Amino acid sequence: MQIYLPIAEVSVNAFLILGLGGLVGILSGMFGVGGGFLITPLLFFVGIPPAVAVATSANQIVASSFSAILAHFRRKTVDLKMGMVLLAGGLVGSGLGVILFNYLKSIGQVDLMVRLCYVLFLGVVGLLMFIESVNAIRKSRQPIGPRKPSSRRHKSWIYAMPVKIRFRTSGLYISVFPPLLIGLLVGALAAVMGVGGGFIMVPAMIYLLGMPTKVVVGTSLFQIIFVAAFTTMLHAVTNHTVDTVLAVLLLLGGVIGAQFGTQFAMRLKAEQLRVLLALLVLLVCGKLALELLLMPSELYSLTRPGGH
């Protein structure tokens, strides 16, 4: 069933868009990621202009993340105080990111910049995720020996920083600055790339801040909801690149998919799931890189920079 998208100015298959939203919803529920790092490049592949894909996918992230976080609230695995600190940094970062996005759009370079960012981030994150997951699977198959005492020396600089706050749900007493900076980076990425930032935030919360894994996913989703909503609003007001029809289709698929994702997360092995996600990320990265390297079918365009 073909449907016309008024802002994107293209016709797409409605069931295909619903399926993409559902896929990202499943990933949101399983891994605590908003899913924008996959939905945005997938929208590129079906013919959605990058500027519209970035702005509209941020809107879809809100719904899939909200649907997924309800289950985490029921399990009491959300650190609200940590979430608020991350959110404070995220709102500032998203504002700065939209300013950069608007500047790139005005000089006609936003499409190239967004695609290059995706190739870089997806390549690095996918490769690191794949290596870590394969190592985890290998360790799980080895006989269990005596455990070595864990060391936190690599995080000593975080514990030495000033302005400390006690985060009781996470069992941490650390400076407010590291989570603020993580939130700032994720907010900027949300605005420029249309991502929730969970694929960066989740590892940072575990390995950098030392948060327990059981509260990381829910806390990440809490921050993603508000940052993605704020980013969508800024894009809608300043760029007019949020396609409502596309957003509704992605929302419907995302909300349904997130419920299945939370169920899958409880039944399947985490290491195997991460390998599959890493392979999917690398596949999307390769497809984007190939499109950048291949010669386009149309060498010239009559559209001036800025789209006027």
TrEMBL record:
<feature type="transmembrane region" description="Helical">
    <location>
        <begin position="215"/>
        <end position="238"/>
    </location>
</feature>
<protein>
    <recommendedName>
        <fullName>Probable membrane transporter protein</fullName>
    </recommendedName>
</protein>
<feature type="transmembrane region" description="Helical">
    <location>
        <begin position="85"/>
        <end position="104"/>
    </location>
</feature>
<feature type="transmembrane region" description="Helical">
    <location>
        <begin position="273"/>
        <end position="295"/>
    </location>
</feature>
<keyword id="KW-1133">Transmembrane helix</keyword>
<dbReference type="InterPro" id="IPR051598">
    <property type="entry name" value="TSUP/Inactive_protease-like"/>
</dbReference>
<feature type="transmembrane region" description="Helical">
    <location>
        <begin position="51"/>
        <end position="73"/>
    </location>
</feature>
<feature type="transmembrane region" description="Helical">
    <location>
        <begin position="244"/>
        <end position="261"/>
    </location>
</feature>
<dbReference type="InterPro" id="IPR002781">
    <property type="entry name" value="TM_pro_TauE-like"/>
</dbReference>
<dbReference type="Pfam" id="PF01925">
    <property type="entry name" value="TauE"/>
</dbReference>
<keyword id="KW-1003">Cell membrane</keyword>
<feature type="transmembrane region" description="Helical">
    <location>
        <begin position="116"/>
        <end position="137"/>
    </location>
</feature>
<dbReference type="GO" id="GO:0005886">
    <property type="term" value="C:plasma membrane"/>
</dbReference>
<feature type="transmembrane region" description="Helical">
    <location>
        <begin position="12"/>
        <end position="39"/>
    </location>
</feature>
<feature type="transmembrane region" description="Helical">
    <location>
        <begin position="182"/>
        <end position="208"/>
    </location>
</feature>
<keyword id="KW-0812">Transmembrane</keyword>
<comment type="similarity">
    <text>Belongs to the 4-toluene sulfonate uptake permease (TSUP) (TC 2.A.102) family.</text>
</comment>
<keyword id="KW-0472">Membrane</keyword>
